[in-house]
Input
Amino acid sequence: MNLAAALPTPLLMFGATVVLSFVLGLELHGYRRAQDEGVGFGTTRTLTLIGAAGFVLWTLDGSAPRGLYLAGLAALAAWLLGDQWRGRRSAEAGALLPGLIALLAYTLGPLVQTQPDWMVAAVLIVAVLMLAEKPLIRRLSDAVPASEGATLAKFGILAGLVLPLLPDRPIPGLPSITYSGVWMAVVLISAISYAGYLAHTYAFPNAGTLLTGLLGGVYSSTAATVVLARQARADRAVAVLAPAATVLATAMMYIRLWLLIALLGHWRAALALALPFGVLLAGTLGVAAWLWRGARRDGNVAAAPKLGPHNPLDLPVAFLFAGLFVVFAALTAFVTSHFGDTGLHLLSFIVGFSDIDPFVLSLLAGHFQVSEQAVITAVLIASGSNNLLKAGYALALSRQRSMLPAAAWLLATLLLSLAWAAVAG
Output
């Protein structure tokens, strides 16, 4: 017989509240010991009893307006204010953290009774991490400039303000593409690019050249190629690993494109591109590994080149992406209606010499007068011609013979993409 099923539900909820409050108390106690602080207010026993009291008062109230629970909250708040007043001369006793943890413990009872398990777990995990990871949080706070707060606010504007306000209706002249669909693509690609930007800027600020290529490729393989090529020309030590890093940045392009296609719900296109992208990715990673092994024998490897202050969450960048999305969608609609598959393939080759992300996403979002296979072929051609652009950048900007193998492979990926497109078409 299942013991949990045999016990009354209120008893299980009360037990969960007591255990969670006890865990908060243990973490607060450990935090104080780690900081060489006294026990002070908010011991493990105190927090456990506060959590139990919150559960009992919420249960006794039964329904709104929850007078008993609110009275208990007011009493707890007065107690915490009194502790703050008494501790004005002592940094330990007057700290805000124990009081905040006590308030959190008091709310655990209502949380356990009214919210799903994942919500309760998320609240407890955040509280525990805030207590247990103070050194890491302090290092992160010291390392992140104030401007990143504004950057996160921009993402809040992109995802939390603009996206809900946009209507889910077609753009005039583009019946298959909606305002909200365009902005969803902006939000998703901004999020992926920003993750790569944060990793390179803060998690691995002194990363080696190879890691620079990998992380740079997350938000722009073309930009990473340009920076690596320029640094390879200026510093022969960087030039040792720049070819491998350049190829690795292109490998990340395939991963980023495929993830964007899948996350935006274009499953049929993602499945159709899984094999060609997988083959190109495997080959690109193999070439990167071969170039890296060859570079290791040289030995003299410099620090990683800087990718600069490019921030993929800048609002002008987001608006530019949205504008390009709509422009490419309109251009694709015109070309496909007048020139069919051949016109689309030529357009995709030309677009490859610019930013291909808005073109690819607008192509997949629209229902143009071409076959689905023609659309998949256009994605392959655009990614291949973009690699041709990067090969030109790698050779022209680096002026290093060591870049020849990387440029040759990038050219080979174009030929492989065209060959695959020809066979599949």
